Each structure stands twice: as structure tokens, then as C-alpha cells.
């Protein structure tokens, strides 16, 4: 494997007595699409927030693009993109205004913003929608736009927190084409999901149960190891042991 | 990193501008809210200025003048000239008064006795009868006060030319507002209310909205400095509020005929201070809450209500029991109200309001520090 872009060692987050993320140790390579699976409440979002610098770990070590999650959050922020499970564009701004705003706060120059947003609009086929409010776009388009905006500054890593919630498999497939394009350019993709068809698209998958990583391998190896026909079965076998209630 | 250090500040600058542009778009695009923001002060000023005043205008009165001399005539003219009275008719028959009252045609009757002027000249004291319809005691009281002040005014004018002063009726003084206009006190009150509403509620809501929709996370993950998020949220509302202050002042000067007696610059400077107080309160609320409804509720119940109760513009603080008076001291609007009243109506300068300004400044500093300290860069 290439040198790890994301490295964690016994990364732990406690809220009082509750251990939301328990000794997570893994490595993600450059250009890898890394799936982060788990039932609701398993600790996926907590783990991701620590990696983004949104939440301070209780113990353990982690580096993102070579920067320490405790001390170098400012540098980390410059090197990552983030798309949350809540839809993350401004509904009352137009497509162009959203693109310009996010490019602007990432410090892109006017010239860069112009070329990037033109390329982005061309790629998504939004030429006729640029002046439309984001609120008026269909959900699938919003998500694609949201992803494109999250990577507009060409970060080394992009974190996607359940990016395709609520859309059909065909739209998800289109969304994943965008992800593949970025991964081919060398961007590392860290994605949480609970859609098993999406899990199959990932190069490697980790499955979290009750705050711990219970399995970590390629989808193919996982299916073989658990003697399962689909990722669904693998997931169910692991999730069945979960003690935490669905929260 | 690859960046040349001296480019960093200009980069921050353009990031901030990008953010400001977005904030203004949010504000300007929401037409309904904008309409409320600008419509509110106008409506409030007009309602308080014209409808909700405790003054009584154009009350119909009858004057029964048995004297028909110079003094009675002059006083009658003065009454006629005021906005408060409308002389229905001047009659000589005393009995008609009773009939007019019963029909509800008049609110008041004034009877000048015979030899009114003569008595005034010789004994320097005289009487006249004022009969008021007291079925509405407040109106009756107000009307009596008006008449008293008109008579006092007349005496004062006469006394200038006389060595031995006239005495008609006990004196009542109306300082700063000799015309007894009801509106001036409302203008500073409305200003405090509107600023409170716009700055506290709108700022709180606009920040909490980002939390609710999840965009706040995106902002916190970006290299944009969190403190600048707060500042760029505050700037549009600061400007909107200054526009509102201008509208209120223009309305009161040109529509309500209430001039700004003191320095306009000082008035705006003090208003800016109060706006910053409100903005920091709004920011504080937004930090402590996670939903727009709660932010709105806290702003309305926790901020607007105390402003109305304790700023002194609706209920005099002097009449409150001391625990409530103590509470009123913690209400920033109280101090702002005193300051605006002093500058606008009394025409006083900074030297007269520096204490209040200092208190307001202290409150502002406190809220600003508390809110900036509790704003967490990391969400959890």
C-alpha cells in the first residue's frame, strides 16, 4: 500500500462514560476509496468528525495528510473537503453563488473560481440551472453539486458522511462516477454509508459495531471470510452482535 | 505551505468578502423578512406617534363668557389656538351647558365670571370655572392639565409686563415638552425595541439556521476562521439597524414633528453601541441554542419582553418596587432609552450621558466576551 494519507492509532472518543469510538486503528492510502460502514449509532460520524478536526479525540493518535489531529487542525482544514449527511449547500443561494461562496472561503483566487466553476457546471450539465436557487434542484443534483463544491479546492482527502441518503440507486451510481473521477486524480475518499450497493463500490471497507472496527478488508475478501453472498449478509452477521440500541 | 506569508492577509480579506456577499444575499433575498424589518419601525413609529398616544386632541368645549373682556378673550383665543380643544360654541346661557354634556357634545365647559379682567387687575387673583366630563377620568385629568398649562402660559406672558404678578391657578410645569406632545417618549422606546428585535432575533436566527441546516459544520471544517463567521453574520444586521435608526429619526422629525434636539452624530454613535450590545446578545443566544424556534422564543420572551417592561418607556421604573428596579439596571435597553431621550428630546450632550454610556459599554463588553468565549471552534 502507498503511504497512508489517513493514519489512526487507537483513536478513542468518550462522552462521559460512553465510548463512542473505541481504539480505532487503520490506514487509508492515497487515491483509495475507503468505506466506513456501521449501523446508526455505531460511531461512524464521531470517528469522521475527529478526523476532520471537528471533534477532539479523547485519546489515541491520528494524522491526516501528515498533520496531527490535536495540534494541526488548521493545516488539516486546508487539505480536506467535507460533505455532511445533512445536505450542505445554501438553499436560498443560486448554483453559481454557492460555488463561488465555497470556493471563496477556501481562498481560491477570482480567476481560479471562474475556471473551476465553469468546469464544474459543464461536468454536471448544469449550464441552464446556474441562476436557479439550489432549493429548486432535485435532490440527486443537489448532492452531486454538493460533492463537487466539497472538492472544488482539490483537497488531498474528502470526507463524505452518508452523501447519498434518500436517492435511488441510479442517481447513486451517477454520484459515484464523480467520486471515481476524483479518486483517479489521486484524491482519497473516506465515505460513510449504510447502502450496501455503495459499499461494493469501495476499495476497502471497515465495519463498525458498538464503537469498534469489527472488520476491515476489501468487499471481496469480506464476503469470502464471512461466507456471504453479498455485503448485506456480511453486514447483518456483524451488526447482529451489536448491543447498542439504534439511536 | 506554499503560500507566501504576505499574501495571507489579502487572502483572508477576500475570504471575508466572499462570506459577507453571501450574508447580504441571504438577507436581501428573504423579501418577507426584509419587509418586516423595514416595515416594523415605520408601523411602530406611526402607531405610537398617532394612535397610541395618551394625549387627547380636538376635544369639543363650550366657553361661557360672562366677562367679555380683554383677559377672557385672550384666554379664549389661546384655547382655540391649541390642538387640544375645539371650541364648539361660545354661549352665554349657563343652562345650555348641562344639555350639551348630556348629549355628549362636549367634554368640557369653561365659565368666565363677570368682572374676570377687573378682578385680575385689582386683586391680582381671580377664578374661573372649569367643568369636565369625568366619565373617563383619564381624559378629564388630561384636559384639566391642558387648561392649567394654557392658563399658566397666559399668566407667564402677562407677568412679564407687571410688577405684581397675577395669580389664577396653581402652576403645573411641563419641562422639555411644553406642547405636551405624547410622542417624544415613544420614539426612543421604539428605537430600542426595533434594534432589539432586528439585532438579537435576526442574528440569533441566522446563525442557528446554519447549525440546523448543517452548513455550520461545512464552515467549521473549512479554513475560514470561525470568529469571522460570527463577524460576517453581524455586519449585515449592523447596517440594517443603522438604516432603521435613520428611518425612525427621519419619521419622527418629518412626520411626527419631533426634532432631534441634540447631536445627531452622538445619537448614531450611541445607537451603534447599543446595536453591538444587541448583536452580541444575538450571538450568545445562537451559541446556546440549536433550533431556530428556540432562538426566536428566547429572543422574544427573554429579550423583547424585558425591554418593554423594564426600559422605562411604557412603565415608569421609579414606580417599581426595588427588586424590579435592580433588574431594570441589567436591561441594556433601559440605558439606551435614557441616552436617546436625553440626546433627542432634552438636547443634552455627551457629558450628560457618559455614565449611562459607560454602563451600556460595560454590558456590551460583558456579552461580547462571554459570547466569543463560548463559541466553540470544535463542535463537540
Please provide a written account of the structure:
The complex is a heterodimer of chains A (247) and B (380). Chain A has 247 residues and is of the alpha/beta class. Helix content of chain A is 37%, strand content 26%. Chain A has helices spanning 44-52, 73-79, 95-105, 110-124, 139-150, 169-184, 196-201, 219-225, 231-239; strands at residues 4-15, 18-29, 33-38, 59-64, 67-68, 80-83, 157-161, 188-193, 204-209, 212-217. In chain A, the strands form two sheets. Chain A has a six-stranded mixed sheet, sandwiched between helices. In chain A, helix 3 (95-105) crosses helix 4 and helix 5 runs parallel beside helix 6. Chain A is globular and about 50 Å long. Chain B has helices spanning 7-29, 31-51, 70-81, 95-102, 116-123, 137-159, 186-213, 215-221, 226-254, 264-288, 292-310, 322-329, 332-345, 350-374, and strands at residues 59-65, 85-91, 108-112, 129-132. In chain B, helix 3 (70-81) links the parallel strand 1 and strand 2. In chain B, helix 7 (186-213) runs antiparallel to helix 11 and helix 10 (264-288) runs parallel beside helix 14. The longest helix of chain B has 29 residues, at 226-254. Residues 1-7 and 169-180 of chain B have low confidence and may be disordered. At the A-B interface, helix 2, strand 6 and helix 3 of A face helix 1 and helix 8 of B.
The number of distinct β-strands of chain B equals 4
Q: Overall pLDDT of chain B, averaged?
A: 80
The Rg value of chain A, from CA coordinates, equals 18 Å
Going across the major beta sheet of chain A, what is the strand order? 6-7-8-3-9-10
Assembly annotation: heterodimer
Question: What general outline of chain A do the C-alpha atoms trace?
Answer: globular
End-to-end gap of chain B: 28 Å
What distance separates the N and C termini of chain A? Answer: 36 Å
Amino acid at each position: 500500500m502507498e503511504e497512508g494519507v489517513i493514519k489512526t492509532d487507537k483513536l478513542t472518543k468518550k462522552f462521559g462514560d460512553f465510548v463512542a469510538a473505541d481504539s480505532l486503528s487503520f490506514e487509508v492510502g492515497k487515491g483509495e476509496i475507503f468505506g466506513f460502514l456501521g449501523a446508526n449509532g455505531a460511531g461512524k460520524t464521531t470517528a469522521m468528525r475527529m478526523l476532520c478536526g471537528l471533534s477532539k479525540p479523547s485519546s489515541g493518535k491520528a494524522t491526516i495528510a501528515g498533520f496531527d489531529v490535536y495540534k494541526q487542525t488548521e493545516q488539516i482544514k486546508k487539505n480536506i473537503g467535507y460533505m455532511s449527511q445533512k445536505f450542505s449547500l445554501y438553499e436560498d443561494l443560486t448554483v453559481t453563488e454557492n460555488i463561488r461562496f465555497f470556493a471563496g472561503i477556501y481562498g481560491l483566487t477570482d480567476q481560479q473560481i471562474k475556471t473551476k466553476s465553469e468546469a464544474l457546471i459543464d461536468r454536471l450539465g448544469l449550464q441552464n440551472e446556474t441562476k436557479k436557487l439550489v432549493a429548486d434542484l432535485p435532490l440527486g443534483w443537489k448532492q452531486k453539486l454538493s460533492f463537487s463544491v466539497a472538492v472544488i479546492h482539490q483537497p488531498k482527502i474528502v470526507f463524505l458522511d452518508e452523501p447519498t441518503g434518500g436517492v435511488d440507486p441510479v442517481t447513486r451510481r451517477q454520484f459515484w462516477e464523480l467520486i471515481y473521477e476524483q479518486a483517479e486524480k489521486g484524491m482519497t475518499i473516506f465515505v460513510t454509508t449504510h447502502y450496501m450497493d455503495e459499499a461494493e463500490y469501495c476499495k476497502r471497507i471497515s465495519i463498525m459495531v458498538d464503537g469498534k472496527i469489527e472488520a476491515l478488508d476489501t468487499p471481496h475478501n469480506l464476503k469470502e471470510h464471512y461466507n456471504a453472498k453479498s455485503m448485506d449478509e456480511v453486514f447483518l452477521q456483524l451488526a447482529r452482535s451489536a448491543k447498542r440500541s439504534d439511536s | 505551505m506554499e503560500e507566501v506569508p504576505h499574501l495571507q492577509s489579502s487572502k483572508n480579506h477576500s475570504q471575508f468578502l466572499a462570506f459577507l456577499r453571501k450574508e447580504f444575499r441571504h438577507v436581501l433575498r428573504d423579501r418577507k423578512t426584509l419587509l418586516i424589518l423595514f416595515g416594523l419601525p415605520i408601523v411602530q413609529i406611526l402607531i405610537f406617534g398617532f394612535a397610541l398616544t395618551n394625549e387627547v386632541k380636538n376635544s369639543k368645549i363650550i366657553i361661557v363668557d360672562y366677562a367679555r373682556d380683554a383677559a377672557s378673550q385672550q384666554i379664549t383665543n389661546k384655547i382655540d389656538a391649541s390642538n387640544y380643544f375645539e371650541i364648539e360654541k361660545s354661549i352665554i346661557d349657563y343652562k345650555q351647558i348641562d344639555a350639551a354634556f348630556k348629549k355628549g357634545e362636549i367634554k368640557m365647559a369653561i365659565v368666565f365670571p363677570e368682572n374676570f379682567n377687573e378682578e385680575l387687575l385689582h386683586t391680582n387673583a381671580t377664578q374661573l370655572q372649569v367643568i369636565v366630563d369625568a366619565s373617563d377620568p383619564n381624559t378629564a385629568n388630561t384636559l384639566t392639565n391642558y387648561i392649567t398649562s394654557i392658563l399658566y402660559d397666559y399668566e407667564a406672558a402677562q407677568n412679564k409686563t407687571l410688577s405684581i404678578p397675577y395669580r389664577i391657578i396653581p402652576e403645573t410645569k411641563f419641562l422639555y415638552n411644553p406642547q405636551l406632545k405624547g410622542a417624544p417618549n415613544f420614539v426612543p422606546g421604539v428605537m430600542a425595541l426595533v434594534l432589539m428585535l432586528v439585532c438579537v432575533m435576526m442574528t440569533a436566527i441566522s446563525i442557528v439556521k446554519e447549525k440546523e441546516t448543517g452548513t455550520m459544520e461545512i464552515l467549521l471544517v473549512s479554513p475560514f476562521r470561525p470568529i469571522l463567521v460570527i463577524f460576517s453574520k453581524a455586519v449585515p444586521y449592523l447596517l440594517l439597524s443603522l438604516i432603521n435608526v435613520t428611518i425612525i429619526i427621519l419619521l419622527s422629525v418629518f412626520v411626527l414633528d419631533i426634532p432631534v434636539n441634540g447631536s445627531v452624530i452622538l445619537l448614531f454613535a450611541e445607537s451603534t453601541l447599543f446595536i453591538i450590545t444587541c448583536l452580541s446578545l444575538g450571538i450568545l443566544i445562537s451559541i446556546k441554542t440549536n433550533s431556530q424556534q428556540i432562538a426566536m422564543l428566547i429572543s422574544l420572551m427573554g429579550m423583547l419582553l424585558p425591554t418593554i417592561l423594564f426600559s422605562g418607556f411604557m412603565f415608569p421604573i421609579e414606580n417599581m418596587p426595588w427588586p424590579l428596579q435592580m433588574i431594570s439596571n441589567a436591561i441594556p435597553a433601559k440605558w439606551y432609552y435614557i441616552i436617546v431621550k436625553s440626546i433627542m428630546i432634552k438636547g443634552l450632550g455627551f457629558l450628560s450621558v457618559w455614565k449611562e454610556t459607560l454602563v451600556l459599554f460595560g454590558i456590551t463588553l460583558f456579552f461580547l466576551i462571554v459570547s466569543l468565549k463560548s463559541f466553540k471552534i470544535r463542535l463537540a
